[in-house]
Write a structure and sequence with these properties.
Elements: E1 7-12, H1 19-29, E2 41-46, E3 53-54, E4 60-61, E5 75-78, H2 89-93, H3 96-102, E6 110-114, H4 118-123, E7 131-132, H5 139-145, E8 150-151, E9 157-159, E10 163-166, H6 171-184, H7 186-195, H8 223-230, H9 239-246, H10 250-261, H11 265-283, H12 288-294, H13 300-311, H14 315-323
Parallel strand pairs: 1-2, 1-5, 5-6, 6-10, 7-8
Antiparallel strand pairs: 3-4, 9-10
Keywords: Transcription, Transcription regulation
Organism: Streptomyces venezuelae
GO molecular function: DNA-binding transcription factor activity; sequence-specific DNA binding
Length: 327
């Protein structure tokens, strides 16, 4: 077992836990290593009482720890679990034993919900006045049940600093990789993503998975055009140019792009330019104006505006934070 100085992730498995989401933290954080191969995290899985936990599948899991280890957590992760949302929602989502266990979490520790475990955080009042997300299929109900929470149903996760929420299922992977990137930089996160055979980040948001009418059958898609555009972020890329590359009319391309990605071509391009700028800030010493030009964002002032809107920090502050963590 790693030395206690290592950041401790505690996964709290509740009755009816979804087994896939329960294992995401150990797969992502348990794979992360420093320059000398040292583990960067210790991941412990617990139940409220230390006894085996029934999962949402046809098996139970035995855990090594009881809820008392929550008191030692640097980050607490709560995976989703089977629980109806009815008249007794407060008791369903935050029974007394769970409420007592959550109160053990040290001040300053992070708490993360995956999928509908956001109901636990909201019932505990941890999301009051905050922006949060949950599975898109429950977003409307969640907003009605917790009007004091600003629900964003379109994103894969929301980083609220100390309190973080992920959308459904695999969005838990996205959030864990984001935390790993936040803690140790993109080099470590990208290596873990490669080892786990998942993308370091996913294009679009949760909106691309919301049920909608199936688009017209066509042999063409926008993936090749998106790949083409990624090679040309430093220059202007007009919508008509994208549509021409895809062999579609502007109207058809725009509709199909939104169906596939969950956002407009312009929104997607801006997001890719910002992500490219972030990577350049992390791994190069290029001046801000040069990075802005190479990412297709024009001037340093434009980059500063876009970065502030996207993640709330200035380029130099972002570089200072993440360059120091690249292994």
């Amino acid at each position: 077992m790693p030395e206690r100085g290592v950041h401790r992730i505690v996964v709290l498995a509740l009755e009816g836990v979804y087994p896939f989401e329960m294992t995401i933290p150990v797969r992502i954080f348990g794979t992360a290593e420093g320059p000398a191969g040292e583990p960067l995290y210790e991941v412990l899985t617990c139940s409220l009482d230390g006894r085996p936990v029934r999962t949402s599948a046809d098996f139970s899991v035995a855990v090594e720890h009881g809820g008392e280890v929550v008191a030692t957590a640097d980050t607490l992760v709560i995976p989703p679990f089977t629980c109806g949302v009815g008249a007794d929602a407060e008791q369903d989502w935050l029974p007394d034993e769970l409420a007592r266990t959550l109160r053990l979490l040290p001040a300053g520790a992070r708490i993360v919900s995956m999928c509908t475990a956001s109901y636990v955080l909201a019932t505990a009042g941890l999301l009051d006045g905050r922006r949060a997300t949950t599975h898109w299929n429950e977003a409307e109900h969640f907003q009605r049940a917790f009007p004091q929470v600003e629900v964003d149903p379109d994103v894969l996760f929301v980083d609220g600093g100390q309190v973080l929420t992920a959308a459904g299922v695999a969005a838990g992977v996205d959030l864990c990789l984001h935390l790993l990137r936040r803690d140790h930089g993109s080099a470590v996160a990208n290596r873990v993503a490669r080892l786990c055979v998942v993308p370091p980040w996913r294009e679009g948001g949760q909106a691309q998975f919301i049920e909608r009418p199936v688009p017209e059958v066509s042999g063409a898609g926008t993936a090749a055009t998106r790949a083409w555009a990624l090679e040309r972020l430093g220059g202007p890329i007009a919508l008509a140019e994208l549509a021409r590359h895809a062999g579609m009319s502007v109207r058809t391309f725009s509709r199909r792009f939104r169906d596939e990605v969950g956002m407009t071509p312009g929104q997607w391009l801006t997001r890719q330019r910002i992500e490219h700028a972030r990577r350049l800030l992390e791994v190069t010493d290029l001046p801000v104006d040069r990075i802005a030009a190479e990412a297709g964002l024009g001037t340093g002032a434009s980059l500063r505006r876009h970065l502030a809107a996207a993640i709330g920090v200035a380029p130099l502050a972002y570089r200072q934070t993440f360059r120091a963590k690249v292994g």
